[in-house]
């Protein structure tokens, strides 16, 4: 299974290993699941949601719950707060 290296400093992701720091800005990488699809670089709201989820321990791997096959990830910060409250036990 592969992973993506994500830099929140310059909003870039890499599918291959580059080391621990971003070659573009020198920021530390965050390791996320290969299924992570980064938002467009200028989409401030979506990057804020991604960062919020990562800060709360989510790494964009598929989660399964009792009532849903796959849990969709939130599209707003308010949805992200509800998502964390509901699904944090699944991580």
Share of β-strand residues = 5-15%
Distance between the termini: 18 Å
Mean pLDDT: 82
Total tally of structural domains = 1
General description of the model:
There is one protein chain. The chain has two helices and three strands; from the N terminus they run E-E-E-H-H. It has helices spanning 44-55, 77-87; strands spanning 3-7, 12-14, 30-33. The protein has a three-stranded antiparallel β-sheet, with no helix packed on it. The longest helix is centred in the middle third of the chain and has 12 residues, at 44-55. The protein starts with a strand and ends with a helix.
Q: How is this structure best summarized?
A:
The chain is of the alpha+beta class and 91 residues long. The protein has helices spanning 44-55, 77-87; strands at residues 3-7, 12-14, 30-33. The longest helix is centred in the middle third of the chain and has 12 residues, at 44-55.
Summarize the topology.
Elements: E1 3-7, E2 12-14, E3 30-33, H1 44-55, H2 77-87
Antiparallel strand pairs: 1-2, 1-3
Which key phrases capture this entry?
91 residues, alpha+beta, 3-stranded antiparallel sheet, 2 helices, globular
């Amino acid at each position: 299974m592969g992973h993506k290296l994500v830099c929140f400093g310059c909003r870039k992701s890499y599918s291959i290993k580059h080391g621990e720091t971003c070659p573009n800005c020198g920021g530390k990488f965050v390791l996320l699941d290969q299924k992570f699809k980064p938002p467009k670089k200028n989409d401030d709201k979506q990057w804020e949601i991604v960062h919020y989820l990562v800060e709360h321990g989510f790494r964009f791997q598929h989660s399964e719950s009792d009532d849903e096959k796959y849990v969709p990830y939130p599209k707003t910060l308010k949805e992200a707060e509800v998502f964390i409250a509901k699904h944090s036990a699944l991580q």
